[in-house]
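Work package 3, deliverable 3.1, input record:
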Amino acid sequence: MAMNTFTNTIKNDLARTELFSPLTMSSATTFLWNSKMVAQINCRGYMTSQFMQPEPSKYSYAPNLEAKTFIQPEQPYYADHPGRFFYIKNEETGEMFSAPYEPMRVELDSFCFSAGTSDVKWIINKWGIEFTITLSLTKDLVVELWSVEVVNGNSKALSVSIYPCFSIGYMSWMSQSADFNAELSGIVATSVTPYQKVEDYFKNQELKDLTYMVADQVPDSWCCNLLTFRGEGGMHNPSMLQETRLENKPACYETPVGVQQFKQHLLPNEKQNLNIIFGPAKNVEEIKTLKAKLLAKPEQFKDVRQDYSDYINKGKGTLSITSPDADFDHYVNHWLPRQVFYHGDVNRLSTDPQTRNFLQDAMGMIYIAPAVTRERLLLALSQQKRSGAMPDGILLTDEAELKYINQVPHTDHCVWLSICLQAYLDETGDSSILSEQVAFEATPDAEPETASVKVHLDRAMQWLLSATDARGLSYIEQGDWCDPMNMVGYKGKGVSAWLSLASSYAISCWNQVCETYYLSSELTNAELSESKKTIAEFASAADTLNLQVNKHCWNGDWFARGITDDGNVFGTKTDVEGRIFLNPQSWAMLSNAASDSQYKLMNNQIFSQLATPYGVTMLAPSFTQMREDIGRVTQKSAGVSENGSVYNHAAMFYGFALYTKGQNDLAFDVLKRMLPSQQNADAQGQLPVFVPNYYRGAYYQHPHHAGRSSHLFNTGTVAWYFRSVVEGLCGLKGCGNDLLIQPQLPSHWPTLKVQREFRGASIELNVIKSDKIKDTVVTINGEVSAQHKICDVQAGQTYKVEVLLPLEK
Amino acid sequence: MAMNTFTNTIKNDLARTELFSPLTMSSATTFLWNSKMVAQINCRGYMTSQFMQPEPSKYSYAPNLEAKTFIQPEQPYYADHPGRFFYIKNEETGEMFSAPYEPMRVELDSFCFSAGTSDVKWIINKWGIEFTITLSLTKDLVVELWSVEVVNGNSKALSVSIYPCFSIGYMSWMSQSADFNAELSGIVATSVTPYQKVEDYFKNQELKDLTYMVADQVPDSWCCNLLTFRGEGGMHNPSMLQETRLENKPACYETPVGVQQFKQHLLPNEKQNLNIIFGPAKNVEEIKTLKAKLLAKPEQFKDVRQDYSDYINKGKGTLSITSPDADFDHYVNHWLPRQVFYHGDVNRLSTDPQTRNFLQDAMGMIYIAPAVTRERLLLALSQQKRSGAMPDGILLTDEAELKYINQVPHTDHCVWLSICLQAYLDETGDSSILSEQVAFEATPDAEPETASVKVHLDRAMQWLLSATDARGLSYIEQGDWCDPMNMVGYKGKGVSAWLSLASSYAISCWNQVCETYYLSSELTNAELSESKKTIAEFASAADTLNLQVNKHCWNGDWFARGITDDGNVFGTKTDVEGRIFLNPQSWAMLSNAASDSQYKLMNNQIFSQLATPYGVTMLAPSFTQMREDIGRVTQKSAGVSENGSVYNHAAMFYGFALYTKGQNDLAFDVLKRMLPSQQNADAQGQLPVFVPNYYRGAYYQHPHHAGRSSHLFNTGTVAWYFRSVVEGLCGLKGCGNDLLIQPQLPSHWPTLKVQREFRGASIELNVIKSDKIKDTVVTINGEVSAQHKICDVQAGQTYKVEVLLPLEK
């Protein structure tokens, strides 16, 4: 693997990550989204796109009737995988290739897959011509905007035919056809979403069952019929391209495709451009409107692209760092806030996000748009049950219903409330949220009940304490944070050591919130005394949780993962598989269940059993056979997903906990390893434009596969990543009215510069290591701060903060 | 299209149909089945296979996660479609091709796709070598038996490598892997059927989640990893085949494939053979057992193949004809009974066959195994409701449930009871069935009720009469025979003209049954008088149905299809689309609702509006837009399936009705056009090894697509086809204790010879047209029969029947 497989750059003030060969990382992708759609774009031209109506739907389908399911990890590409391809024919020589690379796979003179924050470009050279293909979206429509710019770099004129070939695929067994619509001057495929029950006819009324592909130029010829287009030649050498013109062939209950021919005669140095829109529609009128809006004049495309870029840039975040590690900075300053924004702004394009995801994704938004965090917290609480329990998913629309995994009872959702709320309050200081009145979930047999956020949270914590067994350990039912750990407690007895620790931590967070943001408000004496009593009771309960986990789940070197329905402690030394789990260790650090000596013992075991070059795995050894007292996680492929991958969400908990323990080097190592890197490019196969939900683990069981990315960009990791950078690495954490200044640089970093917005103030932090001092010196606007904090931060102010760290630290 | 595109032959007493090019009919398929599996095999090597556990499952999957659905019509093949391929490398020249044809598509010296009744063969010549590839099944296991026989026809020795490459595909997102199992000396892919709910874990316990591919020889090398095997070359030129050996590469949470290399050094004229088994298993032990049973000695393969052939030959039927039309004879004598047997023996491999299919498929079995018909009738009646209504599907196992279309209420199911019972009684004379006691469907809130079949049928007919509106026309609810005609009556008011006529016909059939097989039994006078009264009442009710349809649905030239919820008569002259439907005309002929003059008017319209070169369409013009008062049928692609295709089931009703009207030429034309023919090969794309459920219609709307076969071999057509041949064309219909002799030859046939088993007797019919007579002369064993029937047929006897028909007839 050459070290310049990919490059991080800044162009026009925007981040780009560029890959220079279609061969080295053939599965590399990036993604684009808006509130209505998401598209994952592979460097070679394959694409997976879906849009919300309001449930996820397709407009570019597989060649067969696919199951409706979530996006699969390590999605396998195959010859007929949906994609957007551009066959290019040299009209003088008859030579052909396809851009970006599929399906012809002809060698190019140069190749660049350039992932931008709001577009994707390919810059390809062949025959002395430069082809620049650009994909972007709009900020609120379901349409792909494609441009092909062609520049003839030869000293003589050249004629080429460009054949954009966009997969439409198998739309429906009920009805599917496609034809060229002369009025639109574009291809329109029509279908009827398959159904059998009459009630579904009415439900389906509003579905966008058409797929259109319209250019800003009249094509020289076209074909909508996949089988005929492909012919005996196949997609890698379509028969119809052997002829001068396409056959203008419709599809009539046949698999549609969108292919159009555009002949371009290029003088020396001449530049020509072709714009295309592609997407779903309800009817032809809608397409006409879109065409008028997008393709009538060249500047329209430019304008909507700018609008889209402006939308994406709303997610830029409030942090910028300059460290000795430019790749790390690139991710933290650009791709990280973008990924956090994606999660927080559109809720992973689900109508029933899992409660824990919804809350953690909202947590990430404190650094981007904290008003969104507030709104999401209140929405979640409005679906809380009076018992304090949280539902498995948060319904975002009136029609939404709990689907798939949200129909399986999990017991951890309350935990994330106080954690998310604490982060929100530390960032914003907005203590008014605690007195905000929110209704509990309506039930048919009871009067509506409304209470303050404070009361909601108290009940949530009480629910966590009530959902425990005689030992005081938390029931796991059919899963906690780990969805497929579904048979530890399905008989009603099994408990989760992790959840017990997480409950302890969540309660501590809630106590800190109350102490910092509630007690200080204007309470009556009676309220104050009542609140302090509650805090003391909660503190005692959290201690008890820690004690009980220690009593029942500490195996001498680490914490077990839980106790099954039948009373078997698992995740311990006696287990051949699933011997050690990461989460209980990380959260014992967070909850203070682990003493310093326990921490050292645990960490030794994490190093020896869980650490891999690609990060820390979630458990080891990976299960290779079903354990009926643990569940579905043990049936997953070894090293994949929850069964012992480097599951970044879990690894990130560990990294966050390490910062709380002052383990700066170890913590930074977690952050750093999470990013796809040049040296791991072969193994990971991913560009550092997002953190994937996992890298393959099972390092000792399947060494050749370890490190491989899932290529899934939905992950609870990123909110915690951002938080760890801000609060841990940069050490700029809010607390009450103040901003603490406690940077935690890895030992190999001599300096760090940070620009951060905080409650309307501008913080300019400059950290320098010095061998001239023994203790940290913090200077704020030129004055030494003994407390290492900016007290009573004022909006509108700029605070220049200088931190001198002793070299040893 | 050359006239020798395909050939019907007999080899070793068994029928074969052979295709001599992979290019002329690239979608041509045949199918094999047993009680546990079914496989549709495309001439170029693609394959769609499923097995029952007990619901349909896969062991050779698509490259992505497919929806679980019925087999789609006109199934589109794509590059990565599941198949069984054999790459062949000439070890001397390095040249390669793939057999049968996909995925390399290299020109062959000769090609033969030979569909047999119990096997499929390809005979391919290349480089002077003959490759014979054979696929068969076993009679009761889920395993494909593959053989590759190689004969070196060269005068010098030659070395080849044979690489069988069997698709395994995307098995599961939970877990999928594959490896070579040294003990088995074969490839085993393992997976876990995806699920999320703990109850499904227990349901899935018995699933066969492994796929195996084991040969009777140790391979020289192997690969189970699709992506690595394919490499940058693609399936049409796999990278791994460029090397001398395969990489022995497993799949580890990667898409599996089964590829093995077998090097063969062939002396001049030497023959070598390779046997492979491929299928699903629950565990490795099961595969070991299979290997021991099938691959331990060469004769085992031969024996199980013979057993399978014996099983298929149980469906040979009891009829053999020799007519002037050899192709017609070939289908009728071989492929027709086979297709009827498939339907009747394994119920289309469904656990909840639609009631109407279940009964009509059972009807076909009267000519093959009438005991099965009897058993199926009784099973169906055991699920009848006390009201007389029949459920939408018949549950065949305890776990089965009504799925898909069976959750939509249809009103025609009772109709098929008396029709099927009449056919059964006419064929067997088994009047004992009428007094068989059968329980009605159990309901939680009532005592069990048992009654005779006679009573069950009475109630069914009464239910049909009760499910009518004030006009006396039959409610359609959400469909009758036409499943997707689901919005004519979904509001509770719409009626079906077809169902009214079908009810009339069904009641007449029932009356005939009672008169012929019930009144003659030993009844008391009271019973006799009661029965006669019922018969008279039913006869009157049937007349009334006919009258009411005439009154409300005759438009002057044909019968309308029904009246919608809102009172609109549809399928009439004023309709621009769906102007005329075939079924009401055919069944008006059967029910005698149509007078002779009406029949002539109707038939003129059928000729001018519905007839096409590929048969009679079900309606015309096909709908091109939704009619909300008709329903889903109008949303299907024009000319496809129920929306105006040559839907053979409906066409067959028409053919059957034509025989009852003595329209011998028209009736035969229906039978004949239903068979894929040489001259229609381009349009139909199908071999005459089965009658498909439809050929595309919309002849005037989409002339280029008309005639295209659905390639679906599940169709209610074939039972009626058999019945039309026996009762109509051959005119050998049972009635009471007698066999009627009334052959109905098309005018261009001078002769017909028939060999038929009937109630244990052997009938040898010889029909000759003669210009020497004016009226038909029937001779039975040398004696003239004025009644044109064999009276009181005796089992064990042989009846030589000669029929002289006047030439004009």
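The first strand of chain A starts at residue 6 and ends at 11.
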